[in-house]
Amino acid sequence: MPSGDTQTVLVVDDEPDVADAYAAQLRDRYTVRTAYGGQQALEAVDETVDVVLLDRRMPEQSGDDVLESLRSKGVETRVAMVTAVDPDFDVIEMPFDDYLTKPVSRTELFDTVERLLTCAKYDEQFQEFYSLTSKLATLQANKSQSELENSEEFAELTERRENVRKQLDRTLSEFNDDAFAAMFRELNPRPPLTGELTD
């Protein structure tokens, strides 16, 4: 059972069985809440929620809309999209922190939550670097090399990430966790990171 000072995770999915299954896995380590739709999610998010696992494709109010509403209200809680929707270049401008494509394993769930909780301890630049790295890896895992090479958005994203990297050299050099080392290693056209995120 989680202790009284444990972090809180909100699981949002319009399929109760899916949300409840994720919640059941996470409850041994975290305080977990569930929401079965966009409006419920918006009502459930408060200052005590540390991480949101958000389904993207939901009726009435999509995960994209929920995410936009949260950010427009100034909510800075870490958000991972956990969805069956294959990512496209539109993810570049979406203000999430990580993106998991279903089916998602127990290990992926825990690893993602732990990364986001750790990320939340650092400053805005660190969080931006994590988010940009995740988006690069997501697109590389789902787009062909020619699509990436012909995308202005992808080129701009790569440049943005490298600019942030330069500001974080000292922080990254002191970072020893293997999971984060994988996230932060140099991205090549088909990096090992891609396989790690999609296993």
TrEMBL record:
What Pfam families does the record point to? HalX (PF08663), Response_reg (PF00072)
Q: InterPro entries per the record?
A: CheY-like_superfamily, HalX_domain, Sig_transdc_resp-reg_receiver, WalR-like
- Which of UniProt's keywords are assigned here? DNA-binding, Phosphoprotein, Transcription, Transcription regulation, Two-component regulatory system
Q: Name one GO cellular component term.
A: cytosol
The processes (GO biological process) annotated in the record are: regulation of DNA-templated transcription
> What superkingdom does the record give?
Archaea
Asked if the keyword Phosphoprotein belongs to this entry, the reply reads yes
Signal sequence annotation: none
Molecular function terms, GO-annotated: phosphorelay response regulator activity; transcription cis-regulatory region binding
Q: Which residues form the Response regulatory domain?
A: 8-117
UniProt modified residues of type 4-aspartylphosphate = D55
What is this protein identified as?
Answer: Rec domain
